[in-house]
Amino acid sequence: MALAEEALRKQLGKYKFRDLTIEELKNVNKTYPNFTFSMNTYTFKDGSQKELLNFSGTVPVKYGNSYNIPIRLWILDSHPFAPPICFLKPTANMGISVGKHVDAHGRIYLPYLQNWSHVRGGVTDGRNILEKKACLDKSERPKSTVIGLIKEMIAKFEEELPLYSLSSSDAARQSELLSYIAKITEGETGMKSKSKIGGDKNQGCFNKITVVGAGDLGIACVLAIAAKGAADKVVLLDLSEGSAKGGTMDLEIFTLPNVEISKDFSASADSKVVVLTVNSLGNAQTYLDVVQSNVDLFRGVIPAISHYSQNTVVLVASHPVEVMTYVSWKLSAFPKSRVIGVGANLDTERFQFILTNLLKEEVLAKDAWIIGEQGEDKVPSWTTGNSVANQTEAMAARNSRDKVANRAMEVLKGKGQRSWSVGLSVADLTDSILKDKRKVHSVSTLAKGCCNINSEVFLSLPCILGSSGVIEMVKLEEDPLVREKLQSSAGSIHDLQQQLKL
């Protein structure tokens, strides 16, 4: 089908890089003339909608016999700096084979999409000049294209056919579902399917944890979780390029029971908890660039994780934890209860230990919490007030408590957060989740509605944790100073989030 270039140019009026997009679509049309192009409404995970260009057609796949696999690609308005969103488009007599690269809704996941990087004559996807030059000088890293994407799609489909032929009775049922599947773009639905990888055998009886990131923190988390003994299996997902080095290699040499090291996201399938420890090591020059680099990294990680473990609890330990927990929540489209950050759990445990063992204030320690954001802006708070007879005694009790808290905070300031100590804190949190302990922890959770905070930000607050993540937020004692500090933190975090490109 000939490409109506002028009509397409008018339809793509809101596309940021219209000429680049049209240029690439010409190549697609030349290679796959059977594709049809149209503008349709696409619904994102957060419910927002956009009019996006999409094209449908078939790609030839050899799997013993030759098959024409129907697909549909959505082109984002930031193309070619963002990868297309890809789906199968089965007919009424076709069933979807859920597997390594395809989910129950027909959404296609490929390494090519995760590693999408457009490099063109000095323009790159947000990288600095040195990185641009390095990319352009490396012949092994050409720019990502739709043609290249389709070629990898064909190659992966030839390893594992994504569709199968239905019987006549199944086809009748499938035709009823097709209208539903056709509307699915992203996110969770009530539709259930059986996966060919693992089936239902792990559900409800196998405690598996995946740790994403094989740096010092990731390895520390694996060791601490394994030592805790709550997990039946711990998977360390190593996303670094090249062969195994350092601690990862040591883990392979000195094998631990129930610990698996993998570079394949499919190894994380059916995890009860996924711990994110990855941080981008790019050459970003400003703090905003550093955070954006992490966001770009998460854009490749979160969709794959949520694909393979749709009922998992996501535990974020990457920095800055409040922002990256928000990013994980947005990209996964999981309920807010199932996306939490490590927050001030470590600081709270230390704070309570200092009060109990160094300052001999055991009664006071039971209601003591560190809340807010990690770093210098964290603040001590309490879950119950002083039950005293009159206002004078209440004021005296509060002053006495504040003096003790200040002493404890001074001791706490001298404690750094090394990888192994954060790893122990992560193991503590995963233990509460896997065993459904209903224990209270100070973790990063959606703070909207707390302390008159109206924005979607994550702050550390005392929460009851169980197998489904946050069960309930524990009520804090009213304190105008604490409320003011939380509102200030929420404001600065929200301002940063507004500058990020998700």
Rg over CA atoms, rounded to whole Å, is 25 Å
| Straight-line distance between termini | 34 Å
Got a strand count? 17
Low-confidence stretches: 120-142, 169-204
Strand order of the largest sheet: 9-8-7-10-11-12
- The fraction of residues assigned to DSSP E strands is 15-25%
Shape: elongated
| Portion in helices | 25-40%
H/I helix tally:
15
Largest sheet composition: 6 strands, parallel
Average pLDDT, rounded to a whole number, is 81
Query: What would you call the structural class?
Result: alpha/beta
Task: Describe this protein with a few key phrases.
alpha/beta; 502 residues; six-stranded parallel beta sheet; four-stranded antiparallel beta sheet
Itemize the secondary structure elements and their pairings.
Layout: H1 5-11, H2 18-31, E1 36-43, E2 49-63, E3 65-75, E4 85-88, E5 94-96, H3 111-114, H4 129-137, H5 146-159, E6 163-165, H6 168-183, E7 208-212, H7 216-228, E8 233-237, H8 246-253, E9 259-262, E10 273-276, H9 287-308, E11 313-316, H10 321-332, E12 339-341, H11 345-358, H12 362-365, E13 368-371, E14 379-382, H13 391-413, H14 419-434, E15 439-446, E16 458-466, E17 469-473, H15 480-498
Parallel strand pairs: 7-8, 7-10, 8-9, 10-11, 11-12
Antiparallel strand pairs: 1-2, 2-3, 3-4, 5-6, 13-14, 15-16, 16-17
Helix pairs in contact: 7-14, 9-10, 11-13
